[in-house]
Amino acid sequence: MLAAAGVCAGFTAHEPVVSTRGERLDAMPAASAEFKFLLAIRSDRPLIDDLGYDPLQRLNLRSTPFTREVIDIPGWRMGRYRRQGAHLVAMQNPNLAEHLRAIKVHVDELVPVDFAGVVIIDYEPWWALWDRTTNKSSNEPFDARDGDYKDDWRDYIRAERSYLVDGLSAEQAEQVFKRTYQAFMRTFILSTYYRCKQLRPRASWGFYNYPQVLIHSDLTPFGVQGYGDLTHKASQINDEIAWFFEAVDVVSPRIYPSRRVLERVPSEGRQPGEITKSVHEKWLSSMVRESVRLANGKPVLPYHSPIFYTTQSFAREPVSQLQHEEVFRILAENGAAGVIVWHALRHREDLAQWERLWPEELLPAGVQADRALHGAP
Known about the structure:
Strand content: 5-15%
Structural class: alpha/beta
Shape: globular
Radius of gyration: 21 Å
Distance between the termini: 39 Å
Number of strands: 9
């Protein structure tokens, strides 16, 4: 396969960090001299219509480390993806012909012919891995957005391909459900990637949130932050989709801030959702190292956010300059090739918040991190 083109050509490739068992965990890649700060910021159409112009087109990035060499594409705008679940794609378009035709239309609409940056497709909330796809029981119709992704796939197999599970025990049938689901997802994702690469070969293509974000999980021992030392079941499960990481040009895990990092613990103690810098580094470094391990030398570009995504009281508040700087440093020190900062302006309140957080928090953090990493003036 051709090496990743475009913006990724300037990135420094890293050796893999560790495998799941018995390898050196202290073999950390050096910080990349080509660490990139990419902005995937967009204004939603209602805001543009309300203002009569796109406010982000006026964003001046000169003399900053940030660039717009990235395009983020929501799943519903790329092919025949269906948020209701993989079963709906398999039922309505089993040979993916309609999906591939729609990709041509969408790529032509969204990606310039000569684009040589990064393009990330955001297919969620169901994933290539059966064990990392959530399931919420529901009695809604098969085409409802109700979160029962596994149950819907089981029902699809029983209804459309019952010969695969006839006479099997529940345990045996579950293995069939997993095997057929992951086989379909492999076909779906690879056909999407290769069609996009064919249409825009200069672009570097990837998919959002692979490997999937992990903070605490039953796939790691109690108390482990993220993927820990990468020897746990969570990492072993990621190896089941090695084909994904072998195909894509860039790897883009999600690292949206969900907990607030404190510079020092106040005398009255921490509030819910607040963590120390050391806890934050344990979690985030594990996410990056797992991504670097799976990427096997390809650029790792994690998705970061200038606001908090959390159930805590500070949800959607701006992230501090301190926390941004910590994120950028940890990414670079653990082998990431850069960062993608994603944010959407939906209405005037979002715009007012952006006009504060950009000059006060995000931009200064990027400038400081760029100076530390590259010795920039």
